[in-house]
Amino acid sequence: MNTTDAKALLKTHISKVTTLTDEQFDYIFSHFQYQQYKKGQTIVTEGRPVNCEYFVLSGCLKSFFINDELKMFILQFAMPTWWTSDYNALYSQHKATINVDCITDAEVLCLSNEDREKICREIHNVEYFFRWRTNKGYVASQKRLLSFMNNNVKYRYEELLALYPELYNIVPKNLIAAYLGVSRETLSRLYTPEK
Amino acid sequence: MNTTDAKALLKTHISKVTTLTDEQFDYIFSHFQYQQYKKGQTIVTEGRPVNCEYFVLSGCLKSFFINDELKMFILQFAMPTWWTSDYNALYSQHKATINVDCITDAEVLCLSNEDREKICREIHNVEYFFRWRTNKGYVASQKRLLSFMNNNVKYRYEELLALYPELYNIVPKNLIAAYLGVSRETLSRLYTPEK
DNA sequence: TTCCAGATGTGATGTAGATCACGTGATGGC
DNA sequence: GCCATCACGTGATCTACATCACATCTGGAA
């Protein structure tokens, strides 16, 4: 993807929420940095500082946590026009406690914490945009939590696929299982006829 | 609590995050409405419209969901200086899908959706404050989700009490169980010596 | 072409927590 | 002061899902 397309994607994304003049948009775009990654590459690493958040242009990322028994839990998949990072570490300026890596080859725009705060301070509508975006994330997270407490694996699996059908083709089942918080064996058994 | 104290509590709370002149604070405070509730009273009701979010001055609220089998799941407790509402319904202008009620007698300041948006638009630092607050909520929600997937009930119970020791004395165990997503019986058995 | 690692299926067995059932003690409304 | 309701404990049993073990298939690297 060339810079023009990347710019258009971000602009369309932001325009759905707030209005910016072309000059304002050019200005904020100048704070983003284009980056390309290969399948399997790590973008955010546990234990290292986190400086940026990432706007996905193409491909698919995952943010995940590995516990002491080396079991992986996926917090979020990130498809084009989604944002991702270790927000806990980013906002509180701690080292990362989660990882972000690439499920497929991917292109992102990265925005540093300082630059986000700077453009939020400088342009009120940008501040509004990021408030809106975090609201969305918060509400989605609450819904997922509720579904976790309320629904069994099969329901949650179907809910996920209904919401993001494209994941079915891109993401291997063991990662879907790690998102649902279930073992890959159990996920695999969901649709086998009961003996 | 009188208006002066309520005002001071909100002001202190906001001042930790951003700076407002006295005039600005007086102005935004004029958009809040003081309300008093008795233990057990409902503030937000499933199926009804939601217009406001609530800043807790005193007492303890809970926001919760009741599923088809009448099982209750608690999304959040709200103690003094916490905010609560059905944010999903509030932002998207749908009817409430969750309830908010009072675990103890409580006093709140309520702020309508339109007024929040209005004061956010009018005062940049207020927009900043609400972005910051939602960030906090988002990060906390992600952490809880992770703990849910990663830790067993006992660990989550101790984590909750370590974070909010005051809940132990105020909130009955069946509600703690509903927050942890576990049956009250299991919670009750956590500390009985194994037979 | 060969080979190896990753993705997936499936059987056998273990276990955390759910559910049902019942009992006791506290408390608050009338 | 009575009684209904709620909070809480605890035994017996059930079940969804985890874990371990092993097999098959596939695609990509050497």
Write structural notes for this entry.
Chain A is α+β, with helices and mostly antiparallel strands. Chain A is built from 9 helices and 8 strands. Chain A has helices spanning 3-15, 22-29, 87-92, 113-122, 124-150, 153-163, 167-170, 173-180, 184-189, and strands at 33-37, 42-44, 52-58, 61-66, 72-78, 83-84, 99-102, 106-112. In chain A, the strands form 2 sheets. In chain A, strands 1-8-3-6 form a 4-stranded antiparallel sheet. The first copy, chain A, has a 4-stranded antiparallel sheet with strand order 2-7-4-5. In chain A, β4 (61-66) and β5 (72-78) form a beta hairpin. In chain A, α4 crosses α5. The longest helix of chain A is centred in the C-terminal third of the chain and has 27 residues, at 124-150. Chains A and B meet through α3 and α5 of A and α3 and α5 of B. Chain A binds a DNA duplex (30 and 30 nucleotides) through residues 152-153, 172-174, 182-186, 188-189, 192, 195.
Q: What's the helix count of chain A? A: 9
* Biggest chain contact: A-B, 31 and 31 residues
Rg on CA atoms of chain A, Å: 18 Å
Give the termini separation of chain A.
50 Å
Q: Output the structural class of chain A.
A: alpha+beta
Mean pLDDT of chain A: 94
Q: Runs of chain A with pLDDT <50, length 5+?
A: none
What profile does the largest beta sheet of chain A have?
4 strands, antiparallel
The share of residues in extended strands of chain A comes to 15-25%
Described by its quaternary structure, the protein is homodimer
H and E order of chain A: HHEEEEEEHEEHHHHHH
Strand order of the largest sheet of chain A: 1-8-3-6
Helix content of chain A: 40-55%
Q: How many runs of DSSP E, i.e. beta strands of chain A? A: 8
Principal-axis shape of chain A equals: globular
